[in-house]
Amino acid sequence: MANAIDQDHEEEDENNDDEEDSSLKQNKKKRRGSNKNRRKELSISCMLNTEVGAVLAVIRRFPDPTSQFMSSSSPEETCDSSLLNSLKSLRALIFDPPQQWHMMDPLIYITPFLDVIQSDDIPAAATAVALSAVLKILKHEIFSEKTPGAKDAINAIVLGITSCRLERTDSTSEQSVLMRILQLLIGIMRNKTSYMLTDHAVCTLVNTCFQVVQQSAGIGDLLQYNARHTMHELIHIVFERLADIDAIVGPGESRGNDDDDDVDYERSMNSGYGARCAIDIFHFLCSMLHVVEVVDIDGSTVTSSDENIQIFALILINSAIELCGEGIGKHPKLLKTIQDNLFFHLVSSGACSSPLVLSMICSTVLNIFQFFRR
Fold first, then answer.
1. Quick check: 269 pLDDT over 60?
2. Given Cys at both, which of 84, 106, 194, 311 links 153, Cβ 3.0 to 4.6 Å?
3. What span, in angstroms and rounded, lies between the C-alpha atoms of 343 and 167?
4. What is the CA radius of gyration of the chain?
5. Is the CB of residue 335 less than 8 Å from the CB of residue 328?
6. How far from 73 is each of 56, 62, 70, 76, 78, CA to CA, in Å?
7. What pLDDT sits at residue 172?
8. Cα separations (Å) of 197 from 132, 189, 206, 280?
9. 123 by DSSP, 3-state: which?
């Protein structure tokens, strides 16, 4: 009897020891998780402090005395004081007290950089640093789709960079700013919150990228190559997403009715961009097939199709068709655009084009035929 009682006590002690060990392990995991989060928040604080300091330093830096754009006044006198105050306020907020950045409205720490980007009085070098700061914020994924204000923040970034004011300066600084704009365009679309962008915001991004493509023609080959590559990446991201979006038709309407212009697209309030921006972008790509260049021959002005732009447009159109494939059939408006708009441009362009353009037009038609033949 005594042995049985002793055995029961031993089992109870063992169970208590197991529970204590389990509790200790859980507490250790919690402490490790807490320490990890604290270190991550601290690294974000250090990063933001570095970027704010860099922007302020560039703004305060005196321009090159040999530059033709040299000003007689100090940089801080020509700069809007509200910009400096907003940057200083952000720097004061960073470490005191320690912040939980993932739960904070992103506009609090993004807006000062966007103000610099959109300012007319800021040197191009400071604009480039501010663009890099916003890109770094996106790469660090400080905010996510669960962060309050994430949708407003990601759309505000689009508005900020597409409203970028570039001070008249040397070509090197201009190329630096344009290159960072291209990097930021891709950074936005690759961010996890990009699906929160509106259709208008995505169309604005693509339009901005094409403007850089045009500007880069007279600046440098490397910049133009990067601009075209960025444009291709944007088209890839937009039309890859389109394959996963379904169209909704109204009561009594047929999903296959291509003449119906009242088709609405299935998007909840938070689902962001979708088929509508893809259709607008596809319209834009079709219009690129008729871009003309003005040539002066013997004192007379002659217009001709810009073959480089035509080839570039056909590459993008082919990519869009290849990515969507048979999924285009789910979107009657896009299918109608291909049938009416695209084929009109292909026929009119193919009638008087070079062998290279004609070859690409034939490839485009063949791709469409392969996907939509019955």
1. no
2. 106
3. 42
4. 28
5. yes
6. 17, 9, 9, 8, 7
7. 77
8. 20, 9, 13, 15
9. coil
Three-state SS across 250-311? Answer: CCCCCCCCCCCCCCEECCCCCCCCCHHHHHHHHHHHHHHHHCEEEEEECCEEEEEECHHHHH
Provide CB contacts within 8 A for 217, sequence distance 6+.
224
Q: Report how far residue 372's alpha carbon sits from residue 355's, in angstroms, rounded to the nearest whole number.
A: 26
Give how far Cα 20 sits from Cα of 23, 30, 106, Å.
5, 15, 42
Kindly provide the b/e burial profile for residues 11-20, where b requires at least 16 CB atoms within 10 angstroms of the residue's own CB: eeeeeeeeee
Token readout for 150 is 């994430």
**Tokens linked to 282:** 């596809």
Strands (E), the chain: 247-248, 264-265, 292-297, 300-305
Q: Please tell me the predicted confidence (pLDDT) of residue 295.
A: 46
Give the burial class of 137: count Cβ atoms within 10 A of its Cβ; 0-12 exposed, 13-18 middle, 19 or more buried. buried
Residue 372: how many other CB atoms lie within 10 Å: 15
Tell whether the torsion through CA atoms of 63, 68, 72 and 73 is positive or negative. Answer: negative
Q: Which residues pair with 293 in a beta bridge?
A: 304
Taking the C-alpha atoms of residue 309 and residue 288, their distance in angstroms, rounded to an integer, is 7
* Residues contacting residue 339 through CB under 8 Å, at least 6 positions apart: 258
The tens digit of pLDDT for each residue in 274-329 reads 888 999 999 999 988 876 554 455 555 444 567 888 899 999 999 998 888 777 87
Does position 243 have pLDDT exceeding 80, yes or no?
A: no
